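Hi X.,

You mentioned you wanted examples for the new student's onboarding notes, showing what a folding record looks like when two proteins sit in one file. Here is a clean example. The first protein comes first, with its sequence line followed by its structure tokens.
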Amino acid sequence: MKNSHLFVFWLLIAALAFATPASAAYENDSEARYLISQDILGYLRNADQEEPTINELYQAASLYPEYPRSINDSAGNTFVFYQPVKKVVILNNNAADALTVIGTDDLIVGVAESLKENSLQFPETSTLPSVGKWMEPDIEAILALDPDLVIAYGSWPDPEKLETHLPNDIPVIRMDFYKTETYRSEMEAVGHLFNKEENADEYLEWYDHYFDLVNERIQDIPEEERVRVYAEAGEGQSFGRRAYSTGTGLHDLLVAAGGVNIAEEYIDGYADVETEWIIYQKPESVLIWSGKGGYKTDERDLVISQYNGFTGITGSDKIPAVSEGRVYVITSSFAFGSSSPAALVQVGSWLYPSRFEDIDAQSVHEQYLEKYTQTAEDVWDEGTFYYPDGKD
């Protein structure tokens, strides 16, 4: 037995002693009381268990009622934290984005190499030490930073490239921070984890406001009158064009804005489709996803090239979206994640301009940039987040 049962009982008494009337002010009080009591009872039943350790229980008791606290990640894992997280390694831009929004980017100590290339979006975070590629992390670099946790995508990198090589005291939380179905719960979870519930709630109020606004504007449009949209990412990998359908963020975005994806019953996910099929479908609007542009101010020409790549295909003059000037490019830096409410308003105004004529979509994006990012105003002006954008 690691320590005497009497000492563990002392921990329980200490925890209860901390439960003064003032503790009711802590929203975590009920959760902390439950977690610490369960852990102490578990320890009494099996004093040889590895987790939680007696030191973790002691630490939690001293921090009660703020700790312990638990969260669930998007891979179905539950994590219990017995003290504040002070050092975080992140393996993708979306995680950096989320932590910036809730005001905990100062806890990041290491980043994936790809984030270091985004100095205009993350001027401070991008200067931190690299921990390798987001799909091929450098385990030694992570261990050298001695983080309290690592945040990775839900499915990448494979656990055999990450968790398998890390000790148990460096948990890997898997969250995507870009999928519509999990984004909100992920933001609530990290707000709770980092004791930043107020910041997370304030952001989610902004998030919900614009999602609700768009829904109110389009909800009464009959299905047969909704704009038929073709969504793609440029040339196909084998032939034709690379279309996006169900199960993709671009599909979710255009559907939330009131559009109907013409590829929904033709393909799943993303796949190459024949150019002739697109022309035959006669989409009323085209939405092109681009991995270029955004905060990278030197890639405007690449975004415009994608636009011209579609409008210039043989037979495009037979597509209503082209002849009526309703082809749009939207970048990954704008369309998904924490900026998605601004993107949703923009796409809604493209599809149904008369229903959004009183809404300045650009100002919604500027609200986001000012309140929730590290970027300077010159990046707002010089970046190409979507096209056409009136900057030509």
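Then the second protein repeats the pattern, sequence line and then tokens:
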Amino acid sequence: MKSRFPRAVLLPALLALAGAALADGPARTPLPSLYRDECGSCHVPFPPGLLNAGSWQRVMDGLARHHGVDASLDAASAAQIGAWLQASAGSGRRAGDNPPENRITRSAWFVRKHDEVPASAWQGPAVKSAANCIACHPRADQGAYDEHDIRIPR
């Protein structure tokens, strides 16, 4: 059967779809301003697809002791952010595991994607922590983690 689409149109479209389906970086989900303002006031507002719904629920339930600080929110803000995180949570391979302490930086996906980063880079004064995404990914606050944009500080 002959396709009604010319090969010059169909092949690039299929390649684009395959690339999107196989992409291993965090999907760009628009971040609500409340999430950006509240969560982004202490760290990069992480793409919600990096954790599954269960992990996000545990993060939200533990805000009073969020990695050593009290990140509590008023009830309305917590409900709004929590509902958005649940609706936007990851469900694929990247978010499939439950990382220790619900830390994105300890998930199997994160560890695998950063395995070539030398241990010394995480401890340098410009980075300090694996959770400081913007130190190496200059557009992380916009949800952009393209491998071509990485700049590891020395």
